[in-house]
Description:
The structure holds two protein chains of two kinds.
Chain A lengths: L1 H11 L4 H7 L3 H35 L4 H36 L4 H34 L5 H28 L9 H32 L3 H29 L1 H4 L4 H34 L1
Helix pairs in contact in A: 1-3, 1-4, 3-4, 3-10, 4-5, 5-7, 6-7, 7-8, 8-10
Chain B lengths: L1 H19 L3 H13 L8 H18 L3 H15 L6 H8 L1
Helix pairs in contact in B: 1-2, 1-4, 2-3, 3-4
Amino acid sequence: MLALIYVALVLLLPPNAATSETYHLTPLAYHILMLFVALPLITVWFAAFYGYVKLTQYSRTVVSTADGKAFAQIALGLKWLAWGLPISSIVSTLFGGFVHGHPGFGPAAIIINHYLTLILSIVAFTIISNGTRALTNITGRAPSLAATRWLTIGFIFLAMSYCFTTIRIVQTVDINPYQLPLWLILFTIIMPYLYAWVMGLLAAFEISMYRRHVSGLLYKRGLNMLSSGIGLVIFTSIMLQYLTSSSPYLRKITFNWVLLLVYVILILYAAGFILIAIGAEKLRKIEEV
Amino acid sequence: MDRAKSNLYDRVVRVTHIYLGPAADRFIARQAENHLHKSPEKMTANDLLQLVDWIRVAVSLLTDDSEIVEEYIQQLERIAQPPAPKEGKVAHRGI
């Protein structure tokens, strides 16, 4: 249903003026290209729903256990990510069409889009992180000093590059892509995004730790796929958010390369959810034989 | 007697844990309840010998690796066998 709504909006709403102008597209060309982006995106939605539903089904088979409760939390967080995709795409497309007829709504549309994506990320990654922390508590193992330091260095690098990119965009691009003053961007967009990403990266690290320390040769075969999938989903989600924030820079690249980059990230995102589904099915089978 | 049965169950779960991790106790409980119709803590060595074939079938559904399946089954059969008599004490008494 959401897929049909989205395709209808992509085809029926007027084209985005900035995108058409930047890439020299006619309205027909714009709609065809948007359809080429929309169809793989819809496939990713289905993969995301499939992934979180399978993990939810597994967590229900072990609901009374400690690891079952943890996996239920992770599944809930993935559900937020999965639903976030179509919701933000549809809202963004709707607003784009509305702004075409009411340009005065443009800044508000941009602000709402940014905060909607941000809030969905914060909620999703926080819930996933709660689940992975519960899994780590089961093993009773703390991360090593080296791992903690590498994580810290990695995050500092990510935070610095994101801050630099965002502030530079705000200060150098003619039209402020956030439609907000810099101090508000710092406190209500940059900082919350960094919080969400640290939650996400910590979750990816913790599930990898759980996978390393838990026993069970056959159990680990399912868990390996599940944890790899969760890690891949978190990383690609962060990449998508980072790229969206850097979109004014992307306009300097030719459209083909931008499209290729988007497709690669979407494929990896879908692959993550498929791995989650396969891993969850393997674990569920252990509980049913 | 109950302590011996409980020890048997603990040993079975410990061995199963090597292969099924956190799902070990749930797996053994399920096999005991479905095929022996008794609580897993009340399992005897004879019960375990009866259960081994069912466990072999169940684990074979989880993996195609027959080596792992046989390794696991052999460990369970070892638990089910009575311990061998100690020869060392008899020899010392003879001296």
